[in-house]
Design brief:
Fumarate Reductase Iron-sulfur Protein, Chain B, domain 2; alpha+beta; 2 domains; 9 helices; Ubiquitin-like (UB roll); five-stranded mixed β-sheet; two-stranded antiparallel sheet
Length: 236
């Protein structure tokens, strides 16, 4: 199958504006977009820059905007975004983060927001040398949120971040939910200042774009709304 990858290229050291460059390729329809990018870099343009690691949808490093939607390159097959020979498949970097080069974005703010919600178990109560056990029901309360791989797809797709860059974003909030709903955690009060705020859970406007693009099928918006319910009255 012959397709054209139309990749947004940008090197801030030499370019004043992004540009789109076409790369024709013959590929099996079952090949991944990551396979296609690797082919481009190896055979057509060694200067093309993108992130990748495991190639199996676990690390989240190859999130990008493919055919207008946030996806993982390794999990997106050519046949899913190209219907026929000659199809043009657009590829661009994630939104709301500065482009370092081509498909690579600066994730500094993304991970600063993640750290701000204290995404770790907080419990200083003595455990008597035993594990802090949970029932299956207690575990199921936060099981969905444990699937997050911090790929940034939800952050890029969130319309709120297009008008309010102080918003923590869906990834940070779903990471907070993982611990807020953990029966072993005692850090709700420690996280409240950053979560119960206009730029915390209350910044979410329920567009559901984060949920639609999540490659791990996390119910992101639902988790955020459950935290709103727990917080009670809207802050600010």
């Amino acid at each position: 199958m012959r397709i054209v990858l139309r990749i947004r290229r940008f090197n801030p050291e030499t370019d004043s504006q992004p540009r789109e460059v076409d790369y024709p390729l013959d590929l099996d329809p079952t090949a991944s977009i990551l396979d296609a990018l690797i082919r481009v870099k190896a055979e057509q343009d060694g200067s093309l820059s993108f992130r990748r690691s495991c190639g199996h949808g676990v690390c989240g490093s190859d999130a990008m905007v493919i055919a207008g939607k946030e996806r993982l390159g390794c999990k997106t097959l050519v046949r899913e975004v190209a219907e026929a020979d000659g199809a043009v498949v657009t590829i661009a970097p994630l939104s709301h983060l500065p482009v370092q080069r081509d498909l690579m974005v600066d994730q500094t703010r993304f991970f600063a927001n993640y750290r701000a919600v204290r995404p770790f178990l907080i419990n200083e109560e003595p455990s008597s040398g035993k594990e802090r056990t949970q029932s299956p029901q207690e575990r199921s309360a936060f099981d969905d949120a444990t699937s997050c791989i911090l790929c940034g797809a939800c952050f890029s797709a969130c319309p709120v971040l297009g008008k309010n860059d102080a918003f923590l974003g869906p990834a940070a909030l779903v990471s907070a939910a993982r611990f807020q709903f953990d029966s072993r955690d005692r850090g709700a009060a420690d996280r409240r200042a950053v979560l119960d705020a206009p730029d915390g859970v209350w910044g979410c406007e329920n567009h559901f774009q984060c949920t639609r693009v999540c490659p791990r099928d996390i119910k992101v918006t639902k988790n955020i709304n459950l935290m709103k319910n727990r917080m009670g009255k809207k802050a600010g």
